[in-house]
Design goal:
The chain is α/β, with parallel strands linked by helices and about 230 residues long. The protein has a single domain, classed as Rossmann fold, CATH 3.40.50.150. Helix content is about 45%, strand content about 20%. It has helices at about 10-30, 35-45, 65-70, 85-95, 135-145, 160-180, 185-195, 200-210; strands spanning about 55, 75-80, 105, 120-125, 145-155, 215-220, 225-234. The relative contact order is 0.15.
Amino acid sequence: MVSFKPGDPAAVGQLFDQIAPRYDQLNDLFSLGLHRLWKRQAMAWVRPEPGQRLLDLCCGTGDLAQLLARRVRPGGRVIGLDAAAVPLAVAARRASHSPWLPIDWLQADALATGLATGWADGAVMAYGLRNLSDPAAGLRELRRLLRTGGRAAVLDFNRPGGAAADLQQRMLRQLVVPIAGTFGLREHYAYLEESLQRFPTGPEQEQLAQNAGFDYTRHRPLASGLMGLLELVA
């Protein structure tokens, strides 16, 4: 039986390499397409404008990077960065159908991107912070990459309490994991619940972002508290 350990970069990379061909299909299925709305809410916070340089960290198959690239034309640039090779290959193949979009794809670690300090006017990270070996270090690197006043949005599962936590657990165990199992991906999606157990809560994310040097931090629950959007200003 395959086992994926949260916080292990090699295991997480292997997981996303294996689910990449089905990733968008399953996202649409499990969220009833709402993940696209949540990503647009993240993009709305960043406020992309023509001529800007934007980052999509942990970009996966690149749907959000393509949305950003449409907003920064003319004169802007988007870098979609991910540690896993197969999702990046899927992203690049899809973007090849729109060669006018100003996107570069970069395989790199979101904890140490190698990009210049202050390079970006804004950044997004969707479902990536939870998978980093050190979320605090990820937020510090995100702050380093942004110019002063730059905006960032970090979208991910939330860690709610009470009834919302019970609902989230039931949905993962009784809906998400069994359906993923029909695609041969049961262990890949069982990883979700385990990864949430080590993920900072909304208030904890705000504190980590403040410690990283962000001037403004707000964690906003979405989808009745099942998801969360961390809104940041450098």
